[in-house]
Design goal:
Rossmann fold, 2 domains, 14 helices, elongated
């Protein structure tokens, strides 16, 4: 029996998305992870633990510290006998490890951009470093077509760029599992499944809901997520006289998400920026139509007039009109829900997307010129 190839993932092991990649590829590869924080996962190694305790004092010295960490990372990779490295999300940690990988001339290595790692860049140095890593990777993948264009714009010299979405587990997000939860329900339920942060504009949703609730007394808004805006949103709901109809669910464990999401009549995503909007795809997989802003990767995930409705960002009036349109027409919601499930099945099936990444890994590993 041939020995499994060893893949080293670089990224936050607490990320739901990375955990899915780990679980999937464990079947065919020997998977290990370098993480930016200590954890209890058996496959993970905290990056700072790679440096021997005897030499940690040197790692705090500028320039010298870089060489010390590079030395111990080289030894770690050699001892583990890594065949391929894949950086998931090119944030500050991913870029940092990417610099070491390039310095050590390790190949092959891949990078996946997820969204804010390309769309939100704070300064010229950060931009230059991410471009540096992207243009030296053997493969770069982006989670949607929009993000692929932005990644290419950031790093025109990329060797190979492919679109590989996160995908949705269609068995986990299966509407037939939750059909009973909607039986006899008289309220009109509106769901929001994002962090309570400015970039996702929950304030505009609450304001739009104030308009919607005047037309539909049975409408209820559920916000699933945590963030710094929660207190101000609670105050806004109170000010608009809808506090009794706005429910803050807090952070939902991933096992609970499908059931809560499936209980909604519509999902609303009023973001200012998005890479691949996973909440939109998961809702569509559950046959829930989506109202969303026309930004980033949302027009790829939500087909306007077919699986949902797209509106301009930062516009509570347009948001309210779209919500009222869907809440007024159950047959339209059913039609869009059916189309949404078909869209996700054809383009964003998790097994298909992960399988595509597996093919790309095989192609990289089969090259002999590294």
């Amino acid at each position: 029996m041939s020995k499994k190839k060893k893949i080293l993932f670089v990224g936050n092991c607490r990320s739901v998305h990375l955990q899915r990649w780990i679980s999937y590829f464990k079947n065919n590869f020997d998977v290990h992870v370098i993480s930016p924080a200590p954890c209890d996962h058996t496959e993970c190694t905290y990056f700072e633990d790679i440096v021997s305790a005897r030499w940690k004092w040197l790692s705090s010295i500028p320039k010298v510290g870089f060489l010390v960490r590079a030395f111990f990372l080289r030894r770690y990779l050699s001892d583990l006998d890594v065949d391929l490295i894949h950086i998931h999300f090119l944030g500050s940690f991913g870029t940092r490890i990417g610099r070491y990988i390039v310095f050590l001339r390790f190949r092959p290595f891949a990078v996946s951009t997820w969204g804010s790692d390309v769309l939100v860049l704070r300064n010229k140095r950060e931009t230059a470093l991410r471009r540096y890593v992207l243009q030296r990777a053997d493969l770069v993948t982006a989670v949607c077509g929009f993000l692929a264009k932005e990644t290419k714009k950031l790093a025109p010299g990329i060797k190979r760029l492919e679109v590989v979405p996160f995908g949705v587990d269609l068995k986990f997000f299966d509407p037939l599992r939750f059909r009973h939860k909607r039986n006899g329900t008289k309220t009109l339920r509106i769901g929001f499944f994002k962090h309570l942060k400015e970039i996702y504009c929950p304030e505009y949703l609450v304001r739009a809901f104030g308009i919607v609730s005047r037309k539909f007394s049975s409408a209820v808004l559920f916000l699933a997520g945590e963030g710094e805006l929660r207190e101000s949103l609670e105050s806004l709901a109170e000010e608009l006289g809808v506090s009794q109809k706005v429910h803050f669910l807090g952070f939902l464990e991933k096992e609970k998400v499908p059931a809560v999401m499936a209980s909604m009549d519509i999902t609303v995503i009023p973001s200012l920026s998005e890479g691949l909007p996973v909440a939109a795809l998961e809702s569509e997989a559950l046959r829930i139509p989506v109202v969303a802003t026309r930004v980033g990767g949302l027009p790829e995930a939500v087909e306007d007039g077919k699986t949902g409705v797209l509106v301009p960002p930062r516009n509570e009036e347009s948001l309210a009109v779209a919500m009222i349109k869907l809440l007024s027409d159950e047959s339209l919601r059913r039609k869009m829900g059916k189309a949404g499930r078909e869209l996700v099945s054809s383009k964003y099936n998790w097994d298909d997307n992960a399988g595509r990444m597996s093919v790309l890994y095989t192609e990289l590993l089969e090259k002999t010129d590294f």
